[in-house]
């Protein structure tokens, strides 16, 4: 089978990994710039810019957050040793790119911090959203997972070309002092702009209480409004942020 042949998404991916929450990224790295749209723009935050490097890593030249680039170097070494034919075909379609998640007006792409990369195989980009993945990407995804990177095949809209640093990995770099800030790590919460299976579970909880949300894993305006309505009904602080108290009250409800 060629590395660009399309196969079904493997049954076990991203085990125990969560894509980095927007709350985590903004708290620990700051906002990359003051304005976002669907265009790929550069970082204007001077503190974040100090952490951005441009280096050759394995067969690729990449521009991204320094610890993410260092992690990619280790990952590519493992791919070269374990999947040499995939390694020989590796290319990429970008790492640092400050913009919203495609199709969203609230979620900031993790490319914006230089902590995500879109890979090509033999110059071919995996088609987003078709529910199939290139065989070579499926073979190297476990290696990315082993090093704390989340595979985009796990998103509601399959994005198999995309790999990004997980929330735990970002928090570990912060704990190790690699992010250059003295900020405290935020509590694990869900808020406007987040996405992933935890958001989908939140939407399912709210729907069981009478909401009619699309369970798409996207914490958009409708989910934000539903959370605020629940908080108001339960006498909680109405901020639209799902922290420990809101989660505990949802469990009781």
UniProtKB/TrEMBL annotation:
Domain Peptidase M15C: from-to ranges: 103-164
Pfam families: Peptidase_M15_4 (PF13539), PG_binding_1 (PF01471)
GO molecular function: peptidase activity
Domain spans labelled Peptidoglycan binding-like: 195-250
Name of this protein: Peptidoglycan-binding protein
């Amino acid at each position: 089978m060629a590395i660009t042949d399309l196969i079904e998404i493997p049954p076990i991916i991203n085990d125990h990994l969560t894509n980095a929450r927007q709350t985590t990224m903004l708290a620990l790295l700051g906002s990359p710039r003051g304005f976002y749209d669907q265009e790929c723009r550069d970082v204007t935050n001077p503190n974040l810019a100090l952490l951005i490097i441009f280096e050759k890593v394995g067969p690729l030249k990449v521009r991204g957050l320094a610890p993410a680039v260092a992690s990619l170097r280790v990952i590519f070494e493992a791919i070269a040793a374990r999947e040499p034919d995939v390694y020989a075909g590796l290319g990429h379609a970008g790492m640092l790119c400050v913009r919203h998640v495609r199709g969203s007006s609230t979620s900031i792409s993790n490319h914006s911090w230089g902590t995500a990369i879109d890979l090509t195989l033999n110059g071919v980009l995996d088609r987003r959203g078709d529910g199939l993945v290139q065989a070579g990407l499926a073979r190297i995804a476990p290696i990315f997972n082993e090093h704390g990177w989340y595979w985009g095949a796990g998103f509601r809209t399959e994005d198999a070309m995309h790999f990004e640093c997980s929330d735990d990995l970002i928090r570990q770099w912060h704990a190790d002092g690699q992010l250059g800030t003295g900020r405290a790590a935020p509590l694990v919460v869900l808020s406007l702009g987040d996405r992933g299976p935890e958001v989908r579970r939140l939407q399912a909880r709210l729907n069981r209480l009478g909401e009619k949300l699309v369970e798409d894993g996207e914490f958009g305006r409708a989910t934000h409004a539903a959370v605020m309505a629940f908080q108001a009904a339960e006498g909680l602080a109405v901020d639209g942020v799902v922290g420990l108290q809101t989660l505990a009250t949802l469990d009781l409800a």
